[in-house]
Amino acid sequence: MRAPKRPRRPKREPGFCWIHPRWRERSQSWEWCPARRIDGKLVWGRSYATQQEAFDAAKAMESRRTILRSIGEMTFRAACERAVARLLANGGSEHTAKGYRTKFGRWWKFLSPDAPVAAMNSSDIEFLKEQRRKEHGVGSNTIRTDLVILQRVFDLAGLRGERNPVSGVERPKVGEP
Fold this sequence. Notes:
This protein is α+β, with helices and mostly antiparallel strands. A hairpin with a 2-residue loop joins β2 and β3.
């Protein structure tokens, strides 16, 4: 006689996210952490006191994930939004995201936001660097930060390594006037 079959788990709906309890030494309590696979990488959200808060955060992580999936046709605007979504999904603060969006708005004055990312090259980035220095009067440290953020944006858009246009741009030295 065969053992009765266990009932099969139902298929997960698209908004599904793993919710894991974790013990926090600082608060001496269990907290709930949502984890989601974004761009092939397991991304952990922040800790939440209740499981329901974690489920709500997981749903928000899922909605941020579905910005634009096609890498070849991704626009610069979509790549910037994807960078902000990744920042928030990795537990970054809303203040940092707001600063990124402000920075992107300044960049779109010099780089076309609706141009395909694959069409951009290092001369566009050099132009942005010079214009930021001239018009906005920013220093070398700010330009270095801009280039690091731009590198992340292009990485998330699928342009990595030598294909990343920021890799061909010379970074200013730290503390340069």
